[in-house]
Design a protein that fits this description.
- With 457 residues, the protein is α/β, with parallel strands linked by helices.
- It has two domains: 174 residues, Alpha-Beta Complex (Aspartate Aminotransferase, domain 1), CATH 3.90.1150; 251 residues, Type I PLP-dependent aspartate aminotransferase-like (Major domain) (Aspartate Aminotransferase, domain 2, 3-Layer(aba) Sandwich), CATH 3.40.640.10.
- The chain is built from 17 helices and 14 strands.
- A five-stranded mixed beta sheet has the order 2-8-7-6-5, sandwiched between helices. A three-stranded antiparallel beta sheet has the order 9-12-11.
- Helix 2 runs antiparallel to helix 11, helix 8 crosses helix 9 and helix 14 packs across helix 16.
- The site of ligand F0G has 15 residues, from helix 4 and helix 5.
Length: 457
């Protein structure tokens, strides 16, 4: 008998208290920090959906492994456990440990980027794009058209547009393309998966033009679960086999271990090319650390080695993907506009449709995110004109989409927490027409979403 309720496949072993606050208190708190959710004390947040990065709960086996961490500078046994766990899923010749994903990106693009170089992806994550641009190379997004349409129900909205990729390669010239990237799942595109078929096609095209192909694989296990669920011929496959097949299609990867590897910190760069690996290791020693620990303590390496065995559990992934969809589908059924279909790690509220009376340059996403905090103590993240609107030449233009991301930390909140989130969203939606826009009262020179102050209009 299969029951309809999919339970959390874990029980609570250790808890962190949530300090309850009232709406009145929260109104004062958020006003006091210039209406910027990043500036709140996290103790003043009830349900923290700012990010799924490093915010998940570790298992007791991970905590036990932390006690076994060996802090030898070189050749620690913790390093070998970590390396074996990575290579068990991603059998690349070289594994280069970093303190988080963006450090792996910084090293890779320092080695491969530079003026005149152009690097395509389905959609670059913002740190990936920033690291490419910092090297003076150009980052280009070539996701399929459905991936840019919040209401399209395409099962693999993270797929690369293959026609556009081939045109791009011919137009740009192979010599100017140091690497082709693919983000799985496509975080900036709504946490949407990429199909195995599409990965195979990109891999084949890279082989045809003799181009290296790298994965940004932060949410690889969630992506593999979507492949198993949605792609023809995959429903009987083991997740580990799907992950290995994905790995076999690429020449290397960058990784944030703060996502699917179930760590609070960590990352890596893995690849087959010996000469490139040597160059990257030299950069690693310069900025991160010795190649057998990179930016991490031995105990972190231990926790990640265990996390990598837990993340590929079918029971966990079934719960993970179903529980994210539980939130998104419930909101959608209440008539609340969300990006569809629901992705793996987050639900994206469509603030443009939620607050059609607030123009883009009055930041509807910010208005919605602040209101969710005031009404229910929920912290989401604006992904819209606040984040992307300021251009390098100083002008301000509306972002293509106005979203509020509710990212779900792994193994952290229960279904009643999520039922509460649904109730709060419904309440805010009921009163949506009363919400007003914001203006920016204080703005830093760059990455303004982190530190700007906002004043209500
Ligand atoms: N690539 C993707 C697809 C990511 O989502 C992130 C981080 C990174 C790279 C960078 O990794 O944070 O370890 O340096 N995403 C977080 C988020 C910050 O909230 O989506 P990092």
């Amino acid at each position: 008998m299969e029951f309809k309720t999919i339970i959390e496949p874990f029980k609570i072993h250790s808890v962190a208290t949530i300090a309850m606050t009232t709406q009145e208190q929260r109104e004062k708190l958020i006003t006091g920090v210039g209406n910027n959710l990043f500036s709140l004390h996290s103790d003043d947040v009830l349900i923290d959906l700012l990010t799924d990065s490093g915010t998940g709960a570790m298992s007791r086996n991970q905590w036990a492994a932390i006690q076994r961490g060996d802090e030898s500078y070189a050749g620690s046994p913790s390093w070998f456990k970590f390396k074996d766990a990575v290579q068990n899923l991603f059998p690349y010749t070289h594994v280069i440990p970093t303190h988080q994903g963006r450090a792996a990106e910084k090293i890779l693009f320092t080695a491969l980027g530079g003026p005149g170089k152009v690097i395509p992806s389905n959609t670059h994550f913002d740190t990936t794009r920033a690291n490419i641009e910092y090297s003076k190379a150009e980052a280009v997004d070539l996701v399929i058209a459905e991936g840019r349409d919040p209401s399209s129900l395409h099962p693999f909205k993270g797929n690369m547009d293959l026609v556009a990729l081939e045109e791009f390669i011919i137009k740009t010239g192979v010599a100017n393309i140091p690497v082709v990237m693919m983000t799985i799942t496509n975080n900036s595109g709504g946490g949407q998966p990429v199909s195995l078929e599409n990965l195979k096609a990109v891999s084949a095209m890279c082989k045809k033009y003799n181009l290296p192909f790298f994965l940004d694989a932060c949410r690889f296990a969630e992506n593999a679960w979507f492949i198993r669920e949605r792609e023809a011929g995959q429903s009987e496959c083991n997740i580990v086999d799907i992950v290995r097949e994905i790995a076999s299609l690429a020449d290397g990867m960058t990784m944030s271990a703060k996502k699917d590897p179930l760590g609070n910190i960590g990352g890596w760069l893995a690849l087959n090319d010996d000469a490139l690996a040597e160059k990257c290791r030299n950069l690693l020693i310069l900025t991160e650390g010795f190649p057998t620990y990179g930016g991490l303590a031995g105990r972190d390496l231990e926790a990640l080695a265990v996390g990598l065995t837990e993340i590929v559990s079918h029971d966990y992934l079934k719960y993970r993907i179903t529980s994210t969809a539980y939130l998104g589908n419930a909101l959608s059924e209440l008539g609340i506009p969300v990006m569809l279909p629901i992705g793996g790690h987050a639900v994206y509220l469509d603030a443009k449709a939620f607050l059609p009376h607030i123009p883009a340059l009055q930041y509807p996403g910010q208005s919605l995110a602040v209101e969710l905090y005031k009404v229910g103590g929920i912290r989401g993240c604006e992904i819209g004109t606040v984040m992307f609107g300021r251009k390098p030449d100083g002008t301000e233009v509306a972002a293509p989409m106005e979203l509020v991301r509710l990212a779900i930390p792994r193994r952290t909140y229960t279904q009643s927490h999520i039922d509460y989130v649904i109730e709060v969203c419904a309440e805010v939606h009921k009163n949506a027409s009363r919400l007003r826009g914001y203006k920016i009262a204080k703005e830093p020179a760059s990455l303004r979403h982190f530190t700007s102050e906002f004043a209500p209009l």
